[in-house]
Amino acid sequence: xxxxxxxxxxxxxxxxxxxxxxxxxxxxxxxxxxxxxxxxxxxxxxxxxxxxxxxxxxxxxxxxxxxxxxxxxxxxxxxxxxxxxxxxxxxxxxxxxxxxxxxxxxxxxxxxxxxxxxxxxxxxxxxxxxxxxxxxxxxxxxxxxxxxxxxxxxxxxxxxxxxxxxxxxxxxxxxxxxxxxxxxxxxxxxxxxxxxxxxxxxxxxxxxxxxxxxxxxxxxxxxxxxxxxxxxxxxxxxxxxxxxxxxxxxxxxxxxxxxxxxxxxxxxxxxxxxxxxxxxxxxxxxxxxxxxxxxxxxxxxxxxxxxxxxxxxxxxxxxxxxxxxxxxxxxxxxxxxxxxxxxxxxxxxxxxxxxxxxxxxxxxxxxxxxxxxxxxxxxxxxxxxxxxxxxxxxxxxxxxxxxxxxxxxxxxxxxxxxxx
Length: 420
Ligand code: EPU
What we know:
Strand order of the largest sheet: 22-23-1-24
Bound molecules: uridine-diphosphate-2(N-acetylglucosaminyl) butyric acid
Largest sheet: 4 strands, mixed
Strand content: 25-35%
Oligomer: single chain
Structural class: alpha/beta
């Protein structure tokens, strides 16, 4: 197991290029199960979750060739309808194969993802929707077993909460259903929209993309297509905060500023100087940031995937901020670690009251999930002395070459095998 060792206190400067979005690459890969043929996917991020999804697909029968950030996925038929527990337990997003397998191949057996550090994360809304479309679903031996005779039937589905992977799973399944499916209170995340545009290129009939009502007119079959994955908005935000928290000046390129509106508004409110171009954002720290309140919400609200990183910035702000997490019930595990670095944070239910301190001090800390790891790295970049972040395998799930990209900006970061 590796850890990341950071010598804090260096001002970051320079340019960093953003990779393709992990949370788009995953459903897009899963969706290749919806048709025979070949799909060429460009700008695929080199992160472990994408590798895991590739293993799931290969197990199911897909052929995958990788050349740099280009994946060529060919499906001649499926070898199995079962996504094994060994892979699903390492990545909840494996559940995204459920809709495509069921809709195209009539059966799907997917291990039920277990607990998760950031919340319960059930998949009841995915299952209820597929059942409403005519699937027979049983949970046995830790697996979800779904099957359908003939085609799924279009249905009107209302999601109690706008679930991202739930919307994606059901949207993919509905592409091949008989009749029209209407998804109400659907997720509006850019990742959902990018998946929809890929499906449309493949012959799907999807409208209302980017709104909370998505309508899908089912077609008998889809075909292959090429697609370039949208840039990762969470990686973008993480580097913007890296610039701001180190008093630096960083230009983030090959990104989609229009997908980062809520974060940009909050950074501006905190007094961080931003220059926004079409596909780049320049960030310049403007003295100590001001404390601002933040509440996570489904898109276009402030992303829960940026909450931990924003908290690292607020830990060094002037004044007190209240950070409210409304999407996941226990996504504050980074707080105890930030406290070890000298942060002044009090948790009250789903609120974290963060009182900015003048300095953080480097310490050994432990990452609990992907975005918590990013938060601790950011805190380490700004802290005095050495910070050692252990369990960085969480980081490798979703950030491509984070240490190399930070080093390119002047950070002193190195990866080491963890001492036991
Ligand atoms: N929920 C239910 N029932 C369901 C589905 C969701 O109650 O059937 C609840 C969840 O427990 C949660 C809320 O709905 O409280 C929203 O969860 P959602 O389903 O939207 O999350 P997800 O689809 O499992 C995706 C991202 C997460 C990101 C969330 C929220 C992927 C692969 N994962 O998860 O990304 O935090 O949406 O935006 O797209 C990450 O990248 O670090 C990450 C955790």
